[in-house]
Design brief:
Two copies of one chain form a homodimer. With 802 residues, the first copy, chain A, is an alpha/beta fold. Chain A has 28 helices and 28 strands. In chain A, the strands form six sheets. Chain A has a seven-stranded parallel β-sheet with strand order 3-2-4-1-5-6-7, with helices on both faces. In chain A, helix 12 packs parallel to helix 23. The longest helix of chain A has 31 residues. Chain A is elongated. Chains A, B: It comes from Neonectria punicea.
């Protein structure tokens, strides 16, 4: 079931006719457009498509066209006899109701066939108004959005029609449609067209054209037919109609030209993030026309595969395999998020946040504080992205430590972390990471801290293996093997065993050595469970948990002088040892299947950073949460002791409203059991030591992934190319055997990436992915369905075997 | 002319009735609501308000109400006899057409009177559909938005009515309206209510209620009246109607309760930017209900002023005097920006940007490259805010210098800048600023550079004075005086005079000293014209220009060893000396009246940073533009030589589309001469040496401000409190005589801030402002009208004299 993509051919101009209301003359004006197009482009084929028709067949729109537009190729795809809204007609009929996907696929197939036959025009006529429900009850404006056909909006010329036309336009616009023409009857009483011409011209540069109204119905059918025929004959010659068609044709050409020129223009004028521009070519730059659900609609650059298909669809859907740099959760162009953004923009715009509060910021703060279920956290600070949020976190933590331990301003403080950590690209966030490819050449980078080695987890030949790097084997042994990933996460149970004692001893010994070297630390900072940009490294959760525990009981290793009043372990919410900062920018908010990744470790951080999925994949926003005991360090009578950090758009209303919608939607998905199907695919099984939980408990106890256990098992046996694999939540990461160079500089994953981009099923199933050296990963959205993931698994298995 | 604010009283519940279409039963259902409310709340007053009515008076809606809802207080504000859309009726009538402001003010006055009379309900009935034009041609949904009344949407029960109802809802929603109830007739054939109940319930949690349809019209008027009376009698008892009213009442209470509880909740759970939280109290936190145009709608916390006004309007408009931290340009809740954001969200969501291109990013890049008219700039890099954009800029510049001069990785590079510069709050951006209050206590801050003293400009007692700090007087003299600010900006002319020679010599001498100390620099980085966060410091433009020129001709002072192939001055677009970085985040994109602030200096930087107004004040986005000669330094066969900086939401489509709309709108305003009225208010005058230019040339040659020259002159003579003042573009900055503490820690401006917040005209004219120590500033939007600015001037003059 390949996705249905947008429609764009060079020689076939495809347009969708929407009505501002029912009974505004859609069919009549479409008939005129068909006739006029036939006259102007005499050698080309003009087609009319009615995807869904209701009412008696002999009164149907296609019959009208057959009679009055005889040169037009006419087709209706689905027809119900009852003259009412398609959803109502379908409901009471015995005919099977097509799913949205089936309907779209049939339209796509039909129009593709037309396109193969050569140049021409195709007008797709919708039913009723823009939001009239289709057979499946999805309203048309949502239903047809993936096709992204340019729109001819038939305006309403009746009393009240100005309002109907503008509202219909707005419903189209906020779903990313391009309305290219507004066409309506030249009705002389209300003259709506006069107002609408000014309105659409001034605000949107869209021209409004009019056609004379049809003759009133005559009771004698023969006379009626004759007068209509005459009307059609005259109106198809109207200059306004010709103008509309010529303009549509021009915009069609310029849309294609623009898509085709953009890569070369971008090559000249864009400086890309994380890109060696010397290796860039215009051909490597993907022109994205639009995106819908899990897919980009990208400009097809492959030549036609055979001479029998002279005109290929210029757009093709590509699965967004990096979830657009790990941000996507609720699908591209999700109307709920769009409406949320628009509502906040319309209610507030952006309002300055210092010493002010507005509903969406308050509600997001409340959702996070409740959702994280971390009794330590009580304060929410807003910033713009994960990098700024991590800078805020480290500023918070270092100050808290300095105040507690009485260090003066000149004492140089570092952080404790893990090798391969990455917290963002601003200098302060870079300084939290050990020297690596990402930062080693950045002029002002200066790693400030100490980063531990640690054991990692991968599935290898069906076993979940805890690997210990050679450097640590003498300290903590040779690692362990588990039957399931759930067993790896049984940190309570594993904490009783010998490995935990060894981890403790190793960490404690290292901290003592650092103390003897006179080094000072102000925070423990980690990405819980998975180190993302560092190469999708799955850290043994027992190690991270132990790290936190050892740091928390080791105040004596951090204090310079004995501290007078160290908080007791009994007060759960006061930080001890060092403030513990979790960077959950990537791992949190359901990316790994749970609201918070800290729950995998059974640890409550003192500071927690959240971004990316926070806004479901729409706009940048970040929150840094902190405990009162961290916050207290900034309270004084001196303004300059405050956290003097703030961005102009702090807590911008649009971002907060979108975040609120995203968080609530993901929580609702969990509660509705949307992910239960994934959990049954091998993740919750008798051989796991984790009990099967009810959906509501899932967040705290189940380990699951959108990727099936059987698939993980299969590719983990592909030892010729794969050295290990893991899947958690929506993330799959495959470590490929390297080709010499290691890590980020390796190109081992590039051929796999290229193969998936080329695609399967004649390219219809293809994947746009990003790689991290020899690590290949795919991240689906939180809304990606089971069928799609299983198909992706098939595609990946095939690509790995190639 | 105080602004018209939103309507919210504790005891009077105020609702607006919108129709999904004309002829959907708005008046009938409003009549039922009135009758039902009168029955349930027997002791309270129920009111009906028709702001605009068309058609013969004896058929008007208010007559209908008078007959069928006799217990209701009824009022119509504007009436035209012709039964058509208000804009059309008004156009052909001889009655004066009220402006939107007049209409809103009249509504506000009328409802305020009602509120003073005690508890009750008021239903305001609109005309036609949501987008039906009002008398001034503004459609109602925009016209009434500032009132922010909760909405009862009357659904359309006819064929096609599902679409009409949903589209009307979306038009309301994207203007920030809260639709609290959908009400429609229980029509038995199409049963739209069934579908709509599911739709609004599932997607928005809004309940849809139905009322039986009215009897069909009887030809005998007496019988007709009787059957209608009976219908009203029965329907006002319908449970559904009671449920609607009870729910509206509940939501009314909870809206107020939420607004009132938010400050205390925020006080507990929000960590504010740039705020000493110890000094915060719940009372100091402003609850912002919404914002419109130049105004916040904030919760009124003052007690009622007298016992005769028991119920005050809980909301009051406050002028957003900091332009929401310098971001606002096109007004809060600008529908054009909302639609732009929604369109991009609907077309793309966010799409990953590495090696990809989409239309809004391409178009923004093109607009900036053309608009800046800087032949050096050829590359656009996207990030999320001014701070990240400045980090990108400094990374670019330092690398370029290092590669050119052959310094190794260990060579410590600083920047050259000005004292009081500020480039953002991330560590790397902080490191670009000299030690100051903002950064001195930040643990990882380490100022990396050398910052020059410089002469500053202010208007004092009517003269534009170039002040030289004492430390520089022996070097560059005692400063100068000019008759107009335009003369200060005559940098070409002034460059011929002695002052310029002295500036050169001082800068050159200082650079030589730094070279002898062995210090290495990789960039010259400045905010052109105005240093913002540093205290709204107006730097002598001749000094900044000279600084750039000296640096550019002084390669020999920066190179460690003689450089083999120094680019010649002849190649305009290659950086020489050091890459020159202009941080125009605050000063650019029309904030000072021109597309680029660099035009004031007649200098083309090699790197230029733009944010804030870039998106007109809606969502965060930043662009860093660079020259090819800077870009080249990153080209190599090693991926790790690339600029490894990138945020997940890089070039997010929503931000880019909003930026494009904002830039085009501001360019169009300039071309349309929207700001010409400001330019005549003393800025372009015979005594200025600057010639009067045509609007199209204005960007390059005219110095102007929204603040009138007469006003600046007046307050510059207020020497008891004011030590100096300046105005440029939309910014006004007043330096107040200090009360002891200086700079950021001074509280000299606090009393002025408090006075303006309290307001004038019984608080209706009040200003929300931010201060920078002893500097008081107000920044209007680019769309703020001349009348409003002149009124602000009056308010400020009064406040300064108090």
């Amino acid at each position: 079931m390949p996705p249905v993509g947008a429609l764009l051919w060079r020689a076939l101009r495809v347009h969708q006719v929407y009505g501002a209301n029912t009974d505004v003359g859609k069919t009549i004006l479409t008939t005129i457009l068909c006739n006029s197009a036939s006259k102007i482009w005499k050698d080309e084929q003009v087609s009319y498509l009615k995807p869904v028709s209701t009412g008696p067949q002999d009164e149907a729109d296609d019959r009208h066209l057959e009679y009055y537009a005889p040169n037009t190729n006419i087709e209706t795809l689905f027809q119900w006899d009852i003259p009412t809204s398609p959803h109502a007609a379908a409901e009471v009929s015995s005919k099977p109701i097509p799913t949205d996907h089936e309907l779209l696929a049939k339209i796509h197939h039909h129009i593709s066939q037309r396109a193969h036959q050569g140049s021409g025009w195709l007008f797709l006529e919708t039913a009723g108004g823009v939001h009239s429900p289709g057979p499946s009850r999805t309203t048309q404006v949502d239903l047809y959005a993936p096709l992204r056909m340019p729109v001819i909006l038939i305006g309403d010329s009746k009393l009240g029609g100005i309002s109907q036309t503008v509202s219909a336009f707005e419903s189209l616009r906020l779903r990313g449609y391009d309305v290219e023409s507004v066409l309506l009857f030249r009705e002389p009483v209300h003259e709506n067209y006069r107002y609408l011409a000014d309105y659409f011209g001034d605000k949107y540069g869209i021209s409004v054209e009019t056609v004379g109204a049809p003759p009133t119905r005559h009771e004698n059918p023969r006379i009626d037919r004759e007068s209509m025929a005459e009307y059609y004959n005259e109106s198809s010659e109207e200059k306004a109609v010709h103008d509309v068609l010529l303009q549509l044709d021009k915009r069609h050409q310029s849309r294609i030209a623009r898509l085709e020129e953009m890569p070369a223009k971008a090559y000249q004028s864009i400086w890309y993030p994380f890109t060696q521009q010397k290796h860039l070519t215009p051909e490597r730059i993907t022109a994205i026309d639009s995106a819908y659900g899990d897919h980009f609609q990208t400009l097809q650059t492959r030549p036609p595969t055979s001479s029998t298909s002279p005109d290929i669809n210029l757009l093709r859907p590509s699965f967004d395999g990096s979830a657009s740099w790990w941000t996507q959760g609720l699908g591209h162009a999700n109307p709920k998020l769009t409406l949320a953004a628009a509502y906040a923009a319309g209610r507030y715009g952006h309002v300055m946040f210092a010493e002010a509060i507005h509903e969406p910021a308050m509600a997001v703060a409340e959702n996070l504080l409740q959702g994280l279920q971390n009794p330590r956290l009580s304060r929410v600070f807003f910033s713009d992205n994960g990098s700024t949020g991590c800078e805020v976190a480290v500023k918070m933590a270092l100050r808290a430590a300095r105040v507690r331990y009485g260090w003066d301003q000149d004492t140089k403080l570092g952080i404790l972390g893990l090798k391969g950590s990455y917290h963002g690209d601003t200098i302060g966030a870079m300084d939290c990471a050990e020297p690596c490819t990402f930062n080693e050449k950045v002029e002002w980078y200066e790693g400030k801290g100490f980063w531990f080695d640690y054991p990692t987890v991968q599935c290898k030949e069906g076993k979940w293996v805890v690997d210990v790097p050679d450097s640590l084997k003498s300290d903590i042994g040779n690692g362990e093997e588990f039957a399931s990933v759930a067993d790896v996460f049984n940190v309570e149970g594993r904490n009783q065993a010998e490995a935990a004692r060894k981890y403790e001893a190793y960490i404690e010994r290292t901290l003592e050595t650092l103390q003897k070297q006179g080094r000072k630390f102000g925070a423990l900072m980690m990405e819980p469970v998975i180190l993302g940009a560092g190469g999708m490294i799955f850290v043994d959760p027992l190690f991270q948990r132990t790290f936190v525990n050892v740091v928390r009981r080791s105040s004596y290793l951090f204090a310079t002088t004995p501290i007078s009043s160290s908080p007791s372990q009994a007060d759960d919410n006061t930080w001890i040892g060092l403030p513990v900062v979790f960077d959950e920018v990537f791992t949190g908010l359901y990316r790994l299947g749970r609201y918070t990744a800290s729950s995998f470790l059974g640890v409550h951080p003192d500071v927690s950073v959240h971004a990316k999925l926070l806004t479901g994949g729409l706009v940048p926003l970040c929150t840094t949460l902190a405990s009162d005991s961290v916050h207290e360090a900034f309270l004084s009578d001196d303004k300059s002791d405050a956290l003097l950090h703030g961005h102009s758009y702090t807590a911008h209303a649009v971002g907060c409203q979108v975040a609120l919608e995203s968080l609530q939607e993901m929580q609702s998905m969990e509660n509705r059991g949307v992910w239960d199907a994934f959990k049954t695919d091998g993740w919750v099984s008798p051989d796991s030591s984790t009990p099967v939980a009810t959906p509501r408990d899932a967040n705290d106890s189940i380990v699951w992934s959108a990727w099936s256990r059987a698939f993980i098992d299969t590719i983990s046996h592909h030892t010729a190319r794969v050295s290990g694999v893991w899947a958690l939540g929506s993330v799959l990461a495959v470590t490929l055997r390297s080709d010499g160079a290691t890590g980020y500089k390796s190109s081992a994953a590039l051929s796999l990436q290229a193969r998936l981009r080329e695609g399967y099923e004649d390219g219809r199933w293809n994947v746009h992915s990003r790689v991290l050296g020899n690590v290949f990963y795919i991240m689906v959205g939180q809304t990606t369905g089971r069928t799609a993931v299983r198909e992706l698994e098939g595609v990946l298995t095939e690509a790995l075997s190639a």
